[in-house]
Amino acid sequence: MKSESWAIVASILAGVALVGFFAAPSLLRGPPRDAESLCLKTGAVGHTLVLVDKSDPWSEVQAGRLKRLVKRIGDELPADRMLSIYVFNDVFEPGFPPLLSLCNPGRTASELIGNPRRDYVRWVEKFGRPLDDALAVLTQPAKGNLSPIVEAVGDVVSRPETRVREGEKALVLVSDMLQNSNQFTVFGTNATARDPERLKRLVGKVWQDSGANAWRLQVHQVQGVYDPQRLEQAGSLWQQTLRGLNIPFVWERL
Predict the structure, then answer these.
(1) Strand residue runs (E) in the chain
(2) Nearest of 92, 102, 99 to residue 44 by alpha carbon
(3) pLDDT digits over 186-230, tens only?
(4) From the CA atom positions of the chain, what is the Rg in Å?
(5) Which class would CATH give 45-253?
(6) 0.90 exceeded by the pTM?
(7) 118, 135 in Cβ contact below 8 A?
(8) How many CB atoms lie within 10 A of CB 251?
């Protein structure tokens, strides 16, 4: 009787081992991912969206700071989180494509127990190299007559492809914050230029309509080529507007 019981146990254990043998490759590879975005087939877990305003030229020093900022964001990106980089200039066209949009695939169990050099190469191929290519484009000089910052924010955060079902959403805005469009401008001497209430109405409407109020906002104000006093005025105007609308933000100089 005892020998029969041991035989049954042995058969069960053998069956479990056989299932584990066939299931192990799938488990080691990790969950299925989209081949292009590297995101989980079930969707990204959180999203960091970097929006860069290249409507005005930057110095070489500022370009270097931008590169370090985006590189740090990429290096610290949690597994399964999406990183998107969008760049706009004075010729603003709704629906402009991202420079990069990828999820950090993290590392599978097989990579963690495998060869470190091979792991590094695979990481670079999957995520690091596209990020480096995007950085090379970001730091190239550009110049334009308009700077539709509010419009660009509203456009990118309202798109279906930038939405995620779970996880935190962070909007990193890199700009001199000198809004200049037909809806609002910080330039000029007429009565509507630099009108705080007009900017407040514009930002409030765009944030509400686009869903930007669901994103955690971080602004990196580029010092650019303009007079420091004008940049300071623009920064103060924006911060006053955001506080007046109860939009949480972090404001830093680039």
Answers:
(1) 45-53, 82-88, 100-103, 166-175, 216-221, 249-253
(2) 102
(3) 987 776 677 899 999 999 999 999 999 999 999 999 987 778 898
(4) 24
(5) alpha beta
(6) no
(7) no
(8) 15
